[in-house]
Design a protein that fits this description.
Blueprint: H1 8-12, E1 29-32, E2 36-43, E3 47-52, E4 56-61, H2 62-68, E5 71-73
Antiparallel strand pairs: 1-2, 1-5, 2-3, 3-4
Length: 74
């Protein structure tokens, strides 16, 4: 996968280490009802980090995001 050039990891030239988890992948555009548009920047086993255009970075529980459908594709 090519670097997105938007997140800190890509700008720093760091390798992508986290595998795709569920429906989300690093670099995937997403939309949150309250936070607006953003991009997944990190995935861990139980959480993901999204860089939202208007509110910056937010770490979200993957379980809650999936159960409540908090993110949609951007």
């Amino acid at each position: 996968r090519a670097p997105c050039d938007h997140c800190d990891n890509c700008r720093a030239g760091l390798p992508e280490e986290a595998p795709a988890t569920g429906p989300y992948e690093i670099g995937a555009p997403v939309v949150h009802k309250e936070f607006g548009a953003g991009m997944v920047t990190d995935l861990e086993e139980d959480r993901l980090t999204v860089l939202f255009d208007d509110v910056g970075y937010r770490m979200l529980s993957l379980e809650v995001v999936v159960e409540q459908g908090l993110l949609t594709g951007g």
